[in-house]
Amino acid sequence: MDKHQWDGDWAAIDDPSERESLTKELKRELSPAHILHGVDLVAIGRKARRDDVLFRLHDGRVAQVHLTWRPETDPIWPFTVIYADFEDWKSVPVADR
């Protein structure tokens, strides 16, 4: 069970197969120059009706990623914002994430 308090349209990913599928999708999209390429991470939350997913990185940081659903060559995609931790991410107003 997820220990975080989610808000807005964001919710925890409780289904292990969905978590694995979204993590694999992100890795498929990343170019070698992307900031998350080669980073150990796992999907933990998703915005309803959107392509935005929150990933927990191995060091405790979290990354909000807008999936594109295709392999990318430009390292800006998929668009990613990294936060110090879940609470840092949650401190951003809901309308801005």
Please summarize what this structure is.
With 97 residues, this protein is of the alpha+beta class. The chain contains 2 helices and 5 strands, in the order βαββββα.
Describe the structure using short key phrases:
97 residues, alpha+beta, 5-stranded antiparallel β-sheet, 2 helices
> What oligomeric assembly is this protein in?
single chain
Number of helices: 2
Note the beta-strand portion: 25-35%
**Tally of structural domains:** 1
Structural class: alpha+beta
What's the mean pLDDT score? Answer: 94
> What is the N-to-C order of secondary-structure elements (H for helix, E for strand)?
EHEEEEH
**How many extended strands?**
5
Based on CA atoms alone, the radius of gyration comes out at 13 Å
Describe the structure.
With 97 residues, this protein is an alpha+beta fold. It has one domain (10-96). It is built from two helices and five strands, in the order βαββββα. It has helices at residues 16-29, 86-90, and strands at residues 10-12, 41-47, 52-57, 62-66, 79-83. A five-stranded antiparallel sheet has the order 1-2-3-4-5. The longest helix is centred in the N-terminal third of the chain and has 14 residues, at 16-29. The two termini are 23 Å apart. The mean pLDDT is 94.
In terms of topology, how is this protein built?
Blueprint: E1 10-12, H1 16-29, E2 41-47, E3 52-57, E4 62-66, E5 79-83, H2 86-90
Antiparallel strand pairs: 1-2, 2-3, 3-4, 4-5
